């Protein structure tokens, strides 16, 4: 009897699973749509989050816009592919109760899809307005919105959601305080000393040890969320490994790289000085040439009036006539296929040139100053330091930005691929699981979208964060990135879901409070733009929540076709 009951129960379970899978088969279109909008979401992440990581490096002229796009693209892609999540949570941060959807997997599938649609739309708007927002909070707000529409307020874990509200204040305030402290120490004991360059080179190994150690620890910690091996080793591995590697790099720099780097800095300063001198000489020569041309014009006018050079002018005109070329004959000798190939090549080069001019070859500093008089004022009146000491910080700034970008690619690509993985897992199994496998092709899709978004629209956010909040320099940018790395790691331990973007903004505000013209701290910040950014954080979360609730409800509660029969 018991065996019959067990057999019946097993058959019933198989029947229910088959029915569930069959029901999910009709939702194949959702998997395709999720892939498309997940890619668009990744593009938005690349244009916003990744651009923010390199904004200070570009504005401080540590790297060019083109170099930043290439370096960030490589770091993000490698971080995602090498350390990206092989398994991801169905709902990031456990913001909603997934058990409520156990009997309705199709509803959760559709909710994940609309979450990607709403989040990618809001990110596109934020990127258009050049607002640095949190992509993590955007996708979380979108998921909260659909669950509110589907299952009501009881489906939301409000304690977890409240941590996001806390982070809007905690992240920028704590990072701003840390960045201001780092910059105050750097400014007082290095940049404003009598020998700033010598002191910078002397303390450089110590700075490498501290900065790279913190950044590597952050990389290991974020990668540990996706790597079972690193997670198993825990802090006993992460902290010693990070600081042992940084200590090794500090020793290598002190004994091997320091002389080379100093020669490189000196050579660059000499080139800049020579370029400045040449520019001044060119300006003087141009002024003299203009004066000479004025005299020649007067002389020519007098000759015309006196009629002395009529014959000479006629002879010059005859000599200046161009001889006819044999271009028609040359074109006729070229075959049709060669002409088509030549035209296609020229058209391709022209298109690439236009694409480059619209993206990575822009003069974003000129655009920032043309669009904001306050930004131009801050950069003209902001405090400046010894250029050789600043140049030393530029190398650390770029290295720190690379590590931030690598960690971002390893961790935050899940914001785009997590919902895709959830939709595909439900489609394949017909069940709702707390964890879902992530195929490599999905990680590749997310990584490619991030790189493409950075290439096409990253310059917009670099202008906002790099130029419009305060004057930037390599030393300032280094302190901002170091503070952001430290706060992200500490906040992760505490359990507050802070955004790297919010930390970057807070750090930028913090260093902006120091070093204004004659101590004019308020004049070294753009308060109206800062207010606009903060309102953008709140606005994007609320807007994406409302929009996705509406999009989801529009289809979920619409009358079915049978209702009209």
Overview of this structure, please?
The chain is about 80% helix and about 0% strand. The chain contains 20 helices and two strands. It has helices at about 1-25, 30-60, 65-85, 105-130, 135-150, 160-190, 195-225, 230-235, 235-305, 310-320, 325-335, 335-360, 365-370, 375-380, 385-410, 415-430, 440-465, 475-495, 500-510, 525-555, and strands at about 85-90, 435. Strands 1-2 form a two-stranded antiparallel ribbon. The protein is globular. Mean pLDDT is about 80; it is low at about 10-20 and about 310-315.
List keywords for this structure.
single chain, 565 residues, mainly alpha, 20 helices, 1% strand
Itemize the secondary structure elements and their pairings.
Elements: H1 2-25, H2 28-59, H3 65-83, E1 87-89, H4 105-128, H5 135-151, H6 158-191, H7 196-224, H8 228-233, H9 235-306, H10 310-320, H11 327-333, H12 336-358, H13 364-371, H14 373-381, H15 387-411, H16 414-429, E2 435-437, H17 440-467, H18 474-494, H19 500-512, H20 527-556
Antiparallel strand pairs: 1-2
Helix pairs in contact: 1-16, 2-3, 2-4, 2-15, 2-16, 2-17, 3-15, 3-17, 4-5, 4-16, 4-20, 5-20, 6-18, 6-19, 7-9, 7-15, 7-18, 9-15, 13-14, 13-17, 15-18, 16-17, 18-19
Q: What is the element string, with H for helices and E for strands?
A: HHHEHHHHHHHHHHHHHEHHHH
Q: Main beta sheet: strand number and arrangement?
A: 2 strands, antiparallel
Q: Rg, please? A: 30 Å
Percent helix, as a range, is over 70%
Structural class: mainly alpha
Low-confidence stretches: 8-22, 312-317
Which shape, going by the Cα principal axes? globular
Tell how many strands the DSSP assignment holds: 2
